[in-house]
Amino acid sequence: MIGVVVVAAIASIAVPYGLSYQSVKGLTVEVAQVSRVYNPGTLANVEFDLTAHVWSSNSLDTKIDQVEFALWVDDIPFPTITARGSTFSPNSYLQYDLRFVDRTTQDATLLAGRNSHQITLSISSLVQAGLYSTTLSPSTSRIVQVHRVVVQTINPTTLKDCALVTKQVTMNQPGGVTISATSSPDTLLVSISDSHQNSIFNQEGTSFDSTIRLPADTYSVTVQNPGFFCTGATDQISGSVQFWTEQTTLT
After folding, report:
1. Which candidate among 57, 63, 83, 153 keeps its CA 20 to 30 Å from the CA of 131?
2. Is 32 left (phi over 0), alpha (psi -120 to 50) or beta?
3. What b/e string do you get for 197-213 counting C-beta neighbours within 10 Å, with b at 16 or more?
4. Residue 91 near residue 23, CB atoms below 8 Å
5. DSSP β-bridge partners for residue 212
6. Residues 17-63 pLDDT 10s
7. What pLDDT, on the 0 to 100 scale, is given for residue 251?
8. Average pLDDT of 179-197?
């Protein structure tokens, strides 16, 4: 009889402990969404905005506390983020919206020039479920592809002497402009300024091949055949001035 009681007592502890252990050790972090924003300038920085889900292959309510997230992008570490702790139930997850910023100009410029990244996100937390608790640091890695999305294209095919084309382009998020064009037989003058009338680009020539990173703003664009005598002679133009932003996808 005593043996039966002892076995029953051990089972009453072992089963809940086993469930607790599995729930804690099953802690998982995954990246659900990511975007990259490059902010150019003398104090250039790059942001990676992530939506992370934290969950467990659990059968018990699980609590996480003392939460910290860390991010590496192509082996470049970003400053860690401290986040709130909380409890989640079986078949549910916690969502964290995280903004990681690297304010090192060299890192920002390097990462902004790439169209693909490997990101690794980790969570460090005190995890408790039922009788068992411990500190864990699970992580996950994903590939991020960066694609350009065209906002507006200015591409006149001909311009007579002294004629010009003007456009206003509004960019609601950071991106850039690519000036890639040729003209014949005479030169073109391409000018771009921001909403404060600061000159972004102002060049005259028969061939252009430049890409400039831009913050969100409204830009004024002028493409002009400067001419000399306004005789009506016509330049043939190939190419465009194209404004774009960036979009990311996870693979």
Report:
1. 83
2. alpha
3. eeeebeeeeeebeeeeb
4. no
5. 177
6. 677 888 888 899 999 999 999 988 888 899 999 999 998 877 788 99
7. 87
8. 95
